[in-house]
Specification:
The protein has four helices and three strands; from the N terminus they run H-H-E-H-E-E-H. It has 167 residues and is mostly helical. The protein has a domain of 68 residues. Strands 1-2-3 form a three-stranded parallel β-sheet. Strand 1, helix 3 and strand 2 form a beta-alpha-beta unit. The longest helix is centred in the C-terminal third of the chain and has 9 residues.
Length: 167
């Protein structure tokens, strides 16, 4: 029967793991030769033997911890927050995108959202003086409720555009 297990069919009784693939479990408190005597791997008494015990990462040997010495560091740093709390963010459009704009339509955030494909108006719309596609801007453009960069303002005023009241 022993010859069949080596060459013939296997049985459940003959299956066993490879040598040393499953380490022997640690037998705690079984004499000095085991290496796990007295405290059984749990260390000393009191705080260190308890689950979750020990000193925390901010422990500084008994001196006043850093977080308590510096009270101004208690709160959340303002730098870690998103910029929306402190400054305005604009939906931007380049001046070259207005090269084929219909002069009869007033350029406002709503018309730019409909005709120029701006998805989110954010805190307003700003026209930047980017590269011009056709090279020429249409004359007589009328703007309302739109911000401008300095280069876009110069180019549009040179083209004879009405930049609106708040420009």
């Amino acid at each position: 029967m022993a010859d069949e297990t080596k060459s013939g069919p296997y049985t459940l009784a003959s299956l066993k793991p490879n040598p040393h693939s499953r380490p022997k479990r640690t037998r705690v408190g079984r004499g000095h030769g085991s290496g796990m005597v007295k405290t059984g791997g749990e260390g000393g008494k009191g705080q260190t033997v308890r689950s979750g015990g020990g000193k925390g990462p901010a422990f500084e040997g008994g001196q006043t911890p850093w977080a308590r010495r510096l009270p101004q560091r208690k709160g959340v740093s303002q730098k870690a927050r998103d910029i929306g709390h402190f400054r305005q963010s604009y939906a931007v459009i380049n001046i070259g995108d207005l090269a084929d704009w219909d002069v009869s339509i007033e350029v406002s955030p709503q018309s730019l959202q409909q005709h120029a494909g701006i998805k989110d108006l954010k805190d307003g719309v700003k026209v930047l003086g980017g590269a011009k596609k056709g090279g020429k801007l249409p004359t007589g453009l009328k703007f309302r409720d739109v911000m401008f960069s300095s280069t876009a303002r110069e180019a549009l005023s040179a083209a004879g555009a009405n930049l609106g009241e708040d420009a």
